[in-house]
Amino acid sequence: MTASTDSGVPVVTDDQPRPGKIIAVHLNYPSRAAQRGRTPSQPSYFLKPGSSLAATGDTIERPLGTELLAFEGEVAIRIGTAARWVSPADGWSHVDAVTAANDFGLYDLRAADKGSNLRNKGGDGYTPLGPRWIPASDVDPAGLRVRTWVDGELVQDDSTGTLLFDLGRLVADLSQHLTLEPGDVILTGTPAGSSVVGPGQVVEVEVDAPEAPGAPTSGRLVTTVTAGTRTFGDFGSKPAVDDTQRAEAWGTPAPAPEPAFTLTDAMRERFAGVAVATLSAALRKRGYTDVFVEGVFGNHPGDRFVGTARTLRLIPFRPDLFASHGGGFNAQKHAFDAVEPGEVIVVEARGERGTGTVGDVLALRAHVRGAAAIVTDGGVRDADAVAEIGIPVFSQGPHPSVLGRRHVPWETDVTVACGGAAVQPGDVVVGDGDGVLVIPPALVEEVLAEAEAQEAADAWVAQQVAAGAPVDGLFPMNAEWRARYERETAGGAG
What we know:
By secondary structure, the chain is an alpha+beta fold. The chain has helices at 30-36, 88-91, 118-121, 167-175, 243-250, 265-271, 276-285, 319-325, 331-338, 360-368, 383-389, 444-466, 479-493, and strands at residues 22-25, 45-48, 53-54, 59-62, 69-70, 73-79, 95-102, 105-106, 127-128, 134-135, 145-150, 153-159, 185-187, 202-208, 221-227, 292-293, 297-298, 305-316, 343-348, 373-376, 393-395, 407-412, 416-418, 421-423, 428-432, 435-439.
């Protein structure tokens, strides 16, 4: 193998020892899982031999008589210190570097492998790495980007921030079963866009950290496909393909996503003119009777907010689970550090108010990042300090205890139950002095329009009552009052 000519620390050279183990993850990106039509609940793995390693600039042969050689651009991580029985929170600390990888596979040999992937992914040159290692200390494990080009056209582009199983968790999971040793390499999965390449085509993969200082990069890992001249013998399974293998090798297109809902500034202004109570009535007409977050109230009189939900789930305290999930950059810290402007952090605390679920530092972080509000069906610690920060916080009230008294921070961006209401990431959450309401995005426009119409009618009714009209027949309006209202408001519009 030839060394990389790029500046920095080359990944593969002739005088470097091969890693003791190359471990590859099956499905790990949601975009790839959507293509496959299955989302795993836990990661699964396979081994690749050290003889499959290749350097940038090397070639890969597509054997004679085969057709389905597919590339898979990936982030490769290298173990720096031995890991055995480590926690997910500590997993990343055992990684010393990352780089680009291409997990080539020959789908013609896939069926006979029975899931081992030895023959279809273990051939010589089937694991290019490089060209340079990026020190793990220089990057956020959730901030790595992997991109792949075929003949200069960008075909894969995704981030480790979307992974089903984050990098520290992969290290921890594998360390439950075997010792990860210095130099071992883990290929962490490929996003959507993997497909078939043929002789003469050039595949390039790059891993970088665009938001890290200096935007460190592996450089482009370049592999050229060549045509093999030898056929497989009769003393082993022959290449075989069918429609299923062809579809998976070429990449079954993911279903077209529904247009994403956007809570526009114009909508926010309109929400400012309607009450939660009015919105609640409009939702109740449509059968949505359990979308009110029960038992929470604001930390400032007169607080109002609207935003899209960013969720955090807390589970009941258990010492071993808190040890594995409560320390470091846990789910609670991730939620407050990742919230975007205009979003509402919604915390599922199971109605347990006997401890704080947010304190002054995290409330300040959410405020600095532009969050619209924080909603929790648990308690608030440092209540006076939180109130001074200015961000609307709706909770069951103050409590001095820390999170670990009753809760384990478990996961973010999942469907949660807050105050008896189901809340999904992206739901519209509205709050005022009457409490907090959750609105499914698909209903926002019609519910908002009906609430606006009702607010206008209620304001007109209030004018009539102020002028001396009795409420009987006026509130709610009977046919006579309704006709007068429509006549007068139509005339005003003209």
